[in-house]
Amino acid sequence: MEFCVYMKKQFDFLVIGSGIAGLFYALKVSKFGKVAIIAKEDISNTTTVKAQGGIASVMHTPDSYDKHIEDTINAGAGLNDREVVEIVVKEGPTRVFDLINIGTHFDKDENGSYELGKEGGHSENRVLHFKDKTGQEIQRALINEVIRDPNIFIFENHFAIEIITQHHLGQTVKKSTPDITCYGAYIFDTKSKKVFTFLAKTTMIATGGCGNAYQNTTNPPGITGDGIAMVYRAKGVVENMEFVQFHPTALYNPNERPSFLITEALRGEGAILKNHKNEDFCIKYDARGSLAPRDIVARAIDTEMKLSGEDHVFLDARHIDKEKLITNFPTIYAKCMEIGINISKDLIPVTPAAHYLCGGIKTDIYARTSIINLFATGEAACTGLHGANRLASNSLLEAVVFAHRAAEVAGDAKWYPSEIINKIPDWNDEGTINNEELVLISYSRKEVQQIMSNYVGIVRSDLRLQRAMDRLNVIFQETEELYKVSKVRVDICELRNIINIGYLIIKQAKERRQSIGLHYNSDLS
Predict the structure, then answer these.
(1) Active-site residue, from 95, 126, 294, 496
(2) Is 294 a catalytic residue?
């Protein structure tokens, strides 16, 4: 039963994030107790909704688990955890049917079989999809289930500031502390401007990635690495942050942010990347051409852009049947028409954009983090599935597999002793002020994004990484000083978070002394 004592709210399960990972987990654990879902904005405003291509799963022959496993490991440059890959691939089909059973629709052919697409790095057709808006369809089905569940309570327009650990009880907490425990989180209600203390037996971080640490991203504006930054500040283990995946084909439209994604499924249908000389250039870099894994294709585009001095390349879908384009890719077709591009007749200008983080909060095979009673799943987590580069359409699969696995163990969690709960303080903002220097926050955010894009992008170097670190340190000091004297604001908190994310990406990129997968250092090649 939910209750409120002053500014405290108590639930059995706290879920921070409302995409596929958070909602799927909430549905799984609601049979064990009361669940609070924290949605930063509207519950439907998530990165999941932006997922166009689909969800990869072995459905029938000639595909096999072994083929999907090997494709995943090949794409990840062998840095994957093989046990995790096998778990996700083998348990994936059952989780896909969980989605189907709650009302998710996937496209079928004229015989009633699921129509499976093929994307870069896949040896077989195995991507289930719903037109070019698969994520939107999955989100719709999950929301419908969640709002009908009497054990689930949704808090929209609530922002997680920090997770609560022994640190907030006055104890010194270091990375070496063996029993760091999560008791819940401080949550800011952006409407009432109040900070509430949410206490829970277990907390799930499902906040997505960190695309907005970069200038050009396909992620919604609110995707600022919040969960990862909170866990880092709480001394949890975060790893593989250097592996930032840039989607090769975002629509080149400088006046629009976030960037509109042109799904890889379009290349799966036969669309070809071309340079300004109308050359099929990808074939020079990999025999698989435009359907090579994303790290290879993104670097190929980056190289061609530098050689030509142009800001984009092109995707050519003109040879694909027009009716197929309209039927299978209605969102892309309509979007391009809005800006005067008829994809059945015109080349589509595209450029890489920050899209997906393969690293994140380190978890075990049940989504448990290094902090007791704290779980992570979805893009915020580093499960070991992706290695150095994510195979297309594996992300949605990973989210549901690990959300289910987390629910299998989270239901056994016990409440903390009342003496601990009673000692947890409410948020203290004594001595702070409503800061009016908003321009400083927006300038610093843009500066961080420019630093990350210019120095820590698709191609890096030792000099660029050091320059990025030096500049980021200055912004970090300025922002911390501002944060300490200001009342809670989402924009200041987001700025702190992308600075933390930038630091982790740079630090772990500097430590990775090998060009592999998504981490390409020109000094190590």
Answers:
(1) 294
(2) yes
